TrEMBL record:
Provenance organism: Stigmatella aurantiaca (strain DW4/3-1)
GO terms, molecular function: DNA-binding transcription factor activity; sequence-specific DNA binding
Stretches assigned to the HTH araC/xylS-type domain: 223-321
PANTHER family: ARAC FAMILY TRANSCRIPTIONAL REGULATOR, HTH-TYPE TRANSCRIPTIONAL ACTIVATOR RHAS-RELATED
SUPFAM superfamilies according to UniProt: Homeodomain-like
Disordered as annotated region, ranges: 318-346
Pfam family, one: Cupin_6
Protein name (Swiss-Prot/TrEMBL): Transcriptional regulator, AraC family
Annotated keywords: DNA-binding, Transcription, Transcription regulation
The organism's place on the tree of life at top rank: Bacteria
Length: 346
């Protein structure tokens, strides 16, 4: 299945504040690739390959232990739970500690999904069913706000912080994963998009973030300042003007912004300007002077110098090397059953 891009955000023409989370995800050009459904019988274990893509796991039935680098004790997932690994990396799912592990190759899940059949493995014990997927990053570097997300976001089925629509989306994804009707892959990809956003929303709403980043959106003044920066990055913002816009003193605003976001206000502004400039260079036909103006630079020469300091390459060279090109997916023969001989010990 070809990836589906997270696009189609409405323009901000109705006076509402800029949606910073939507801007962050849009700038990263995430593409959704749902792997499909796993039908598992104990004992079972799956090792997913290392990679930069964000991963999502939904437990339809039974349960699983999620293990990843730096996790210490495994994370227990129950039916209806969702786990988001925003930074990717290798991870393992299994029914119990010590169960044998099957190392999953990158193309096996996609080939199974193409036939609308679950991937089966394990023994003769208790049954668990999972739906997994990935979000590929089409642009780098990722934004500071996203980078500060934790290694895993776990949303339990009975979480009081989760919106009712999240549980509904989980159930719809589970139901769609068993369907063979036309358009199933598109529906699953769109539902996975919803779960990605809802998981991050739940993380923000839960509060108590140990790391700065997107949780800054929960703070009314700093969230408003971020929205202003994202809405009007070309404006000649100063610490004073941003502080005044959110009714804080200069010193109080600067300290609070740095504490919650992880960067001083003007450094974050410079980062976001370069992020948007890089996106325009990749995806638009604007001239370099027009891109410079959108990024708040009155001089193309000064923009060129700033961009080269940021990306390590001049804007023109960046555009030539990073132009968005249509992806081509080469079909491979289907593989539905995993060979038990591929299992490894814990």
């Amino acid at each position: 299945m070809g990836p589906k891009e997270l696009t189609g955000r409405p323009s901000n023409e109705d006076g509402h504040a800029t949606d910073v989370l939507a801007e962050v995800l849009d700038s990263m050009r995430l593409s959704t690739l749902v792997y499909g459904r796993f039908d598992l019988h104990a004992p079972w274990g799956i090792q997913f390959p290392d990679g930069e893509a964000a991963h999502i796991v939904v437990v339809s039935r039974g349960g699983a232990l999620l293990e990843f680098e730096g996790s210490g004790a495994p994370l227990t997932l129950s039916a209806g739970d969702l786990a988001l690994l925003p930074h990717g990396g290798s991870y393992c799912l299994r029914d119990a500690e010590g169960s044998p592990i099957h190392v999953m190759e990158g193309g096996a899940c996609q080939r199974a999904l193409a036939l609308g059949a679950p991937l089966r493995l394990g023994g003769q014990g208790a049954r668990s069913t999972l739906v997994t997927g990935a979000f590929q990053f089409g642009a780098a570097p990722r934004t500071l706000l996203f980078e500060k997300l934790p290694r895993v976001i776990h949303v339990a089925a009975d979480s009081s912080m989760a919106a009712p629509s999240l549980a509904s989306a989980v159930q719809l994804l589970i139901a769609e994963s068993t369907s063979t009707r036309p358009g199933t892959t598109v529906v699953m990809s769109r539902l996975a998009d919803i779960l990605l956003v809802q998981a991050i929303r739940t993380h923000i709403a839960a509060g108590g973030c140990q790391n700065h980043g997107l949780c800054a959106l929960a703070d009314p003044q700093i969230g408003k300042a971020l929205a202003l920066i994202h809405e009007r990055p070309a404006e000649s913002w100063t610490v004073e003007s941003l502080a005044a816009a959110v009714a804080l003193s200069r010193s109080g605003f600067a300290a609070r912004f740095s504490s919650l976001v992880g960067d001083p206000p003007l450094e974050y502004l410079a980062r976001w300007r370069m992020t948007k400039a890089a996106q325009l260079l990749r995806e638009s036909n604007l001239s370099l002077s027009e891109v410079a103006a959108h990024a708040g630079y009155h001089s193309e020469a000064s923009f060129n110098r700033a961009f080269k300091r940021w990306e390590g390459v001049a804007p023109g060279a960046y555009r030539r090397g990073r132009r968005t090109r249509p992806s081509r997916v080469t079909p491979e023969p289907p593989v539905l059953e995993l060979d038990p001989s591929a299992a490894t010990g814990s």
